[in-house]
Write a structure and sequence with these properties.
Shape: elongated
CATH class of the largest domain: Mainly Alpha
CATH architecture of the largest domain: Orthogonal Bundle
Order of helices and strands: HHHHHHHHH
Number of domains: 2
Number of helices: 9
CATH superfamily of the largest domain: RNA polymerase sigma factor, region 2, helix turn helix motif
Distance between the termini: 52 Å
Length: 202
């Protein structure tokens, strides 16, 4: 057993050196050697196959892009798990912020407006959001409107669009991302928009 462990350590050290040197072959060998374990770790937390696959891909992309840092790493597998942990935590932070942001947007749509300034602000906001939605690809736009305007469930949207619930989820994720990016890129021109929007784009 000790001999096997020593052999594995030696192989990992060799792969590490080769990856630092830019060897794609060594990187691919590391990927095939470790990706199942990384996937299982991510799945333990996210409980979603599609998201887990994306996060695993991000882990190895980050490892490759920062391969020069491996010169200072003692244990390659430990380093992989650190990257995995950090990206998984970032994922949960991101979806928490997105959920709060979208909740604020939906709440704002239903808030009464009283003063002239508030009415102007509401008009600007609604125009900005409408422009963002209009620029979505057809299926993303349809999914957005079905869930936000008609308040259909994922199952109802899937049946109406003749796609799977997973595809519905993906369309909504992408549409929210595009809307968020559109708002972020146009906030600077609308000085009367509420300050809370800027908090989500710092």
């Amino acid at each position: 057993m000790l001999q096997v462990d020593e052999q594995n350590i030696h192989e990992d050290n060799l792969l590490q050196e080769q990856i630092v040197a830019g060897s794609e072959l060594a990187f691919n060998r590391l990927y095939h050697k470790t990706n199942k374990n990384i996937y299982n770790v991510v799945m333990t937390y996210v409980k979603n196959e599609h998201i887990a696959i994306e996060l695993v891909q991000q882990v190895y992309i980050k490892l490759w892009n920062n391969r020069q840092k491996l010169k200072e790493v003692r244990c390659l597998k430990d380093y992989l798990f650190v990257i995995t942990k950090n990206l998984t935590l970032d994922h949960f932070k991101k979806i928490t912020v997105e959920a709060k942001f979208l909740a604020e947007l939906m709440l704002r749509e239903n808030e009464p407006v009283n003063t002239t300034a508030e009415k102007i602000e509401q008009i600007e906001y609604e125009e900005l959001l409408s422009n963002a939605i209009r620029q979505l690809p057809p299926q993303q736009k349809e999914a957005w409107l079905l869930i936000n305007e008609q308040e259909l469930s994922y199952a109802e949207i899937a049946a109406k669009m003749n796609i799977s619930k997973l595809t519905v989820k993906r369309h909504l994720e992408l549409s929210r991302k595009r809307v968020r990016e559109y708002l972020r890129s146009h906030l600077q021109t609308l000085v009367t928009l509420p300050a809370f929007l800027f908090l989500f784009f710092r």
